[in-house]
Specification:
The chain is an alpha+beta fold. The chain has four helices and five strands. It has a five-stranded mixed sheet.
Length: 202
């Protein structure tokens, strides 16, 4: 699927200010890194093509839904203390985007959909200065936000069969080298991928 990529700058007060130039750089760099990685995933991977289906709107809704589900998995599955009562059974992982995704005509010839989301808000000079002065006062202030999700959805059932999600992603996506690091981190543990094979080689 088309990766959802957002890049901006974190203001002194902690608000994100979107940066179109950084986002464009990240799209190009991550696109190249993902293309290099596709041949090493141990599966036949093809880019999503809407064709003449007019599915773009509903596909966009599923891309947003995947992000919401991934966040819920982080909050209510990855942290045992927060686990929902229905998710407390040992070794269970029952999450999904719903069976309705099977009705999308432009996905009929695929078995699974790989969704990827990345979000980066780089700390501004003001934010970094605040972080330093706050530390001197014994107060913890973070600078920068970097998270990402990569998930595989069964297109017949809508079940999420694999997810890699982290709220502290590495790699500066504004650079080619950083994008390779980010893609490598996102696809770590991808089902079917040959063990020990790097995602991208430069």
């Amino acid at each position: 699927m088309r990766p959802t990529i957002r890049v901006g700058e974190q203001s002194t007060g902690g608000m994100n200010e979107p940066n179109a130039d950084w986002t464009a750089q990240a799209r190009e760099n991550l696109g190249t890194a993902l293309k290099d990685a596709q041949g090493q995933l141990g599966n036949v991977v093809v880019d999503y093509d809407e064709g003449t289906s007019s599915d773009g709107s509903v596909v966009g809704q599923y891309e947003n839904l995947f992000g919401t589900v991934a966040d819920s998995v982080i909050e209510f599955q990855f942290f045992p203390g927060n686990r929902l009562p229905t998710k407390k059974r040992k070794d269970t992982f029952e999450w999904g985007v719903g069976p309705g995704i099977a009705e999308i005509s432009s996905l009929k010839n695929a078995d699974y959909a790989l969704f990827i989301n990345t979000y980066d808000s780089y700390g501004s000079a003001g934010r970094k200065a605040l972080q330093i002065f706050s530390a001197m006062a014994g107060v913890s202030v973070t600078s920068g936000v970097h998270w990402g999700h990569a998930g595989l959805v069964d297109l017949k059932t809508g079940e999420l069969v694999w997810l890699n999600a982290d709220r502290q992603m590495g790699g500066d996506v504004r650079t080619p080298e950083g994008a390779i690091k980010r893609v490598t981190q996102l696809l770590e543990g991808f089902p079917g991928r040959m063990a020990g094979v790097p995602v991208a080689v430069k």
